[in-house]
## 1
Amino acid sequence: METSPARPDAERSGSPAAAGDGRGSVELQGVTKKFGTFTAVDDIDLEIGDGEFFTMLGPSGCGKTTTLRMIAGFEQPTQGEVLIDGQDVAGLPAYKRPTNTVFQNYALFPHMTLEENVAFGLKRKKVPKDEIKRRVADELERVGLSGEATRKPAQLSGGQQQRVALARALVNLPKVLLLDEPLGALDLKLRKGLQVELKKIQEEVGITFVYVTHDQEEALTMSDRIAIMNKGRIEQCAGPEEVYEKPATTFVAGFIGVSNLLPARVISGSEVAIEDGPTVSTPDAAGFTTGEELFAVVRPEKLEVSTPGQAPGDRPGIEGVVESSLFLGTATQLGVTVADGSKLTVLVPNASEEERQRLPGGGARVYLSWEPEHMHLVTESPGEDGTENFQPMQTQDQGDQTK
Amino acid sequence: MNLWSRIRENAVLYIGILVIFYMLAPIVVIAIFSFNDPTGKFNFEWAGFTTQYWAGAFDNEEINRSLWLSIRLAFFTSLGATILGTLIALALVRYEFFGRKAANLLIVIPIATPEVVIGAALLSLFVYASAALGFTTLLIAHIMFSISFAVIVVRSRLIGFDRRLEEAAADLGAAPLTTFFRITLPLLAPGIAGALMLTFALSVDDFVISNFNAGAEVTFPLYIFGANQRGIPVQVNVIATILFAVTIIAMTFVILQQRRAEKMVEKRADDDKKASVAIPI
């Protein structure tokens, strides 16, 4: 995908135009959070525009939840500033911030009915009684739980509880809605349905959503922009298409979908040499210095399989041996080992049974080729040393429990 | 042969019934003898059925006075011990401070200490402070030995407490005090109610420590002990039976409440919160 995608926000990549002047903008400047000697969030900068659906994506322990909690006011940054609507919120406790949160396990008040749960925030703001009644009813209507208003949370299913949590936050019309893996505890089917619903609601109310998840597919489906986090840092912050098509680092390439990493070296401003492979000319090389060691990324569906010696045209390619072949339904997945020992994944769409029969089996030598524009260069992620992370969130309660 | 195998098959059941009988027999005897019409001054032999002592349960001035004292004492004891116990439990579970582990352990020591020792120690303290023995010293003594129980009951409830509920309240604009009264306290209520009842019962029941520190005051247990020399009035059986009935009703209520609360928590604690709570007693 050379040209800019249809999505209008894609070019907002680096910094959104709306940041700073919108009522729901969030800005993080050099924010660092340390728990003892552990750095959960390491000097990150972020600008989230008003009305944006912004996702922080990463594995557990990457600092995404801690970042969210600093915006909500549950944690104070060790360094740096958090601005909401252009205003520095340092020292502003959670209950004074114009944000509301949808918690991972909903955190509904078990001793209150749904109505009371949803009305809780409005009551604190001293909204007139009849207005509270109306807004709570409207909000429960929106999430389709009008009939259950007098029930207690324990009497609801997980999906219903999730909707109540959303209603309880949204009814307050926050400037920013923070969502901490809100669909994490639900089963796949329910999650898919709610993803669509969430996105619809966000477009409807126009409130800024800051969404935390470790599910890359969820992030790609819903977000305007995604910040991919790893070890407390943001590895890339861009629209879903760009993140997928043009990952900035090996970590991003590996985390978003399956990708094939080929070690390579920049030999000029327009060419890279793939280790044990061809030299490919690519405009991407212009962004790197000559001699730099990096990786070429080619997505599995962009690789074409052919017999060695019958290479189609002048496309770059590499030879390998088929190790495995997996039938996935809509496609067949081949595992191919190439000269330098690295394993590549190839995804061949299943057009017909006949075509599938023709695919090389295990042990066959194949030639994998790709269009130069489908190859993208990434640098190795900083700090990829394989050390295990721990999840800093909720250290407090867990500490108490193990006592 | 047939009988023997039947006994063997149901041994656990029979033994269980025997144990329960062993535990409840004294209470049943007390209740039965509240309907006795004794001929002498001792209410130990069945002499005939009467309801006259139930009708005149509160006719004995001396019993009434001691009973009223015990109830007042227990009321203030449970209040004092539960308030202090709840605050201590909050401190022990919620806050990190120097000596927390030690405090967690020290808090159960009064439970393990023989009552005679506590009673004697308190008496010498009161004498040393030249405090006049009476209601106040009794109250101080009772609160002192009840706190541990209150702490343990409330603490077990606090350990399973989902802190995110308080964060959610704050997130929705509730100031810390509002959060405490609207969220924390209502959710701790079953534990607090349990602590109130337990400490009340402990206080009404106490003899040993009271005996040291009562001075001229006579609590209900002290009265019974004294009356034992001269012959216990049948009213004591009546009142004991009433107390027992009230306790049973209260316990049932607490257990039902607890079960309801647990069910709620169970349903909510899907994945991340499997709190394995061990209460060191």
Note: Chain B is about 75% helix and 0% strand.
## 2
Amino acid sequence: MDAFTLTIWLVRIAFVLCLYLFFFVLLRALWRDLRTTVASTGRSLGRLVVVASPEGMPVAGSSIPLDAIMSLGRDVNNSITVDDAFVSAEHALLTFRGRAWYLEDRGSTNGSFVNGQRIEGVVPLGYGDELQLGQVRLRLERDRS
Amino acid sequence: MTGVPVGRPSALGAALRRWGIRPRLRTRELTLLLLAALALTVGWISLASFRAGSITTGDPTLLAGYLGMLLAIHAAFVLTGRRTDQVLLPVTGLLGGLSLLLMSRLPQDLASQDLGFAALELAPLQLFWLAIALAMMAVLAIVVRNDNWLREYKYTWAAVGVGLLLLVFFLGDETNGARLSLRIGPIAGQPSELLKVILVVFLAGYLAENRTLLARTSTRVGPISLPPIPYLMPMLAMWGLALAVVIVQRDLGAALLFFSVFLTLLYVATRRFAYVVLGLALFLVGAAVLYLLFSHVRTRVDIWLDPYVDPLGTGYQVIRALYALGRGGILGTGLGAGLPAVGDTPAIPAIHTDFVYAALAEELGMLGGLAILGLYGVIAERGLRIAVQAADDFRALLAVGLTLVVVVQAALIVGGNLKLVPLTGITLPFVSYGGSSLLANAIVVGLLLALSDRGVEPPPAPTTGRRFRRIRGEG
């Protein structure tokens, strides 16, 4: 076997090895994704932490566990009653659709704010975002577990 | 999974944002792309050196152009900053690159086309189609943020699909006994490739709307219980469509693909195993009738059962493919060293379209062949993951359907190459030569990428069907 045949054989093997190197890195990435998914299922959807609430309902510093659909407003029939002079009876709707939270204003007088910006229509939320209805400020947090 | 937003709050940053540019690094995609580029470069050197008889890179223009294109798309994804899947681009990019390698290796006169500005042969032509397909994929992945244009117009899409079918029937050309291609000016295309995407869009829309009704049981036939008869009609219509494609277009592959994708989607939407049983029964009846009535179906099945009955005639293609696989062995003969061509005629007829897998498996061996199959497995995993994470039924079903279309097609043709199932004339997605096939599969991956973005517009708020609303007095 001369030097050229040997070299070309090595290049050939190197090509197949490169394909498998790609494949190995790919599978490692998929495996990592799978692990994070498994770790995150079964956990609850999240909670709202009350950052500020001048009129005391809900109590500042308390944390509220969340269901998939949460209505917010001054009316007692809401899932979360926010008793504040600047909050409408049916103020906003917080929904978990598939894998993300969305906030929707239900035509409130003073509007709903996400991170200080007034929202229009349905907006997606991330964990850590701060919502404001009237004078009440709430932070959406992932449950620690 | 998602990249890190880069860029400090600065004047430049503000200016960029005003133009819709929000850079977000995609490190995983970049790593995988660089590894794919490394593999393709080594493959190119292997091919060029074998041909030249000394270690050389040959003329790397085509490869450089292709890799540059992949990096440009990566750059576009980074600059627009959408949080889409980072695995699909490198995987399809590697498959396309392998296709380019193989097309450079095969005799160049297998295909040629005068594009007006230049007359191209096999490898440059495939690069041209790859460029158009990848651009299409990138545009879909970047621009599509809203799926209403697919969701709301499902019957329009179905009409477009049926229209395409009729157009092919009346105006199509015949190649190899199948009426498949449609010629517009100098460009000939195969609409059945596009038809599969349209079909998935329609089925996803239809099933997402009616899945609760389809999952109910009210009719009982012996031991299996079925949903109300009117809702079975679409299933019969699909079966009829598949039969029509076989009879009219003589296109077994497309028919098999359509029907299997339909059955799987129906099962995914309803979780009713009775449908699968019923569908398989319909399939067996249809297959038996077609086998008895139509000679082109009978030939395919007979070749599959025993190609050695007519080794130099009908069985030639399959037998040559089996020999090629055997010659390849475990490590392969090496790129350029196989026997895809005797002199200037290809050893396996249709080696650049239907039998690419046999050609690659000969030169890369069983190891290379398994790696290629694994890449399709990865596409399946990503697609189904996108479906699981989708925000609502329509998106989930759409993602499942799009994934199936690519993966089932690959399985059917690879199975045909290996004499595992009867050979059907369809392409190996992203690897076979052909503009229509590349374009249709790129549209599929582009839509999957767009669906994988978690920052897109939310789907319309969940509503019950129109019928239920009317019952509850809300309509």
Note: The beta strands of chain B are 112-114, 119-121, 173-175, 178-184, 187-189, 219-221, 224-226, 341-342, 345-346.
